[in-house]
Amino acid sequence: MKNIAQKERKENICFNAQTRFLLECYLLGKKGIEKVTKKTKLAEIFKCDRKTIYNEIKRGTVKHVKSDLSEVYEYNAEYAQNIANEQNANKEQIPKIMLDSVLAREIKRLIVGNLEKLPFRKFFEVPASCKSL
Hints:
7 helices, elongated, mainly alpha, two-stranded antiparallel sheet
């Protein structure tokens, strides 16, 4: 079978507050930085995939109401950072089952105890460590 050429993967980049602010500067032409709106060019600048840029812009786009009551959608780095912080809030937490050994033993007992009743049981070998429960 012929191998299909795959696109070279770029290194994963995690946007932080500083890179989000820089992205905002590029998109809006702030702080003396030339305005760049092409996603491919931004991906080259940040050395990431174009989809990362699309996702980041989608995350941080907010509706602004101008003084003449017209609505404009713009990227806001602070808003994007707040959303990212909310999404990452639970990333470092230890799962409850790891903290409660009694709960873990009970779940293991229930699973192993019910393996005998399953119709497809004959296809699986129960480890010796589980049979002791």
